[in-house]
């Protein structure tokens, strides 16, 4: 993998790590479902504005419906699952469980997409999960039905991420590809349409929301425009360049970045467990993304 690909992977992790900071600020005030919908709505609007300013042709080449469906799988369902999980899980646990995406992607690849993984990469997946566990060693959460439901919701989300990576390659990359901006726009339109009924139900039947809070709208805009619109452009480019499994390793890097953002903005402290876990995660990512050694056969003439 090229150095530029590694840098883009780190940038994507930093952006998505910041998304959990934004959600921690906004969701308690606006509600989880409302926050999820506003996230994809702002992302959809921002991507549309970017394409309009660039005078980019909306040439989906017959892949518009596919991109809508990918948006439901890769954004709509996961965002909704994380919203539901937020009802039961302590702060930060969703970000930690988000790191199971490479494992879920590996399982999905083996079960449904005829993918094979080397022992080294399987080792990297499991070492990464150990690193995530070390990071959360100082946290405590009493085991209960709610906690189990929240964990299952997060696993459904990461399962969607794992499947969506392979579907993106099969439906888009292997069929001539699709511009990353168009892929991102189509996916966010699909996610917006999927979440719209949930948002309508929340506004009409849920608790009253105090919408006139300008500082929260700043975080909503950052969540939608930067952490979703810009991030998904980067994400789809990475899938095309380095493949779905390597791209999914970004989820190993999100929790460390999430903690760093929390430290910088919210004054949260960094424990020794975090530092040790971050080092383990770094080693795991290297195992997964580093090139395989192939034996060279020589011909005998």
Automatic annotation (TrEMBL):
Residue ranges spanning the membrane: these are: 7-27, 33-54, 66-89, 95-113, 122-139, 145-168, 180-203, 215-235, 247-264, 270-289
Which topology term describes how it sits in the membrane? Multi-pass membrane protein
Q: Which Pfam families match?
A: EamA (PF00892)
Tell me where on the tree of life, at the top rank, the source sits.
Bacteria
What InterPro entries does the annotation carry?
Answer: AA-Vitamin_Transporters, EamA_dom, EmrE-like
Instruction: Give the chief site where it resides.
Output: membrane
Per its record, how is this protein called by name?
EamA family transporter
Q: Tell me which species this is from.
A: Candidatus Pantoea multigeneris
Q: What is the lineage of its organism?
A: Bacteria, Pseudomonadati, Pseudomonadota, Gammaproteobacteria, Enterobacterales
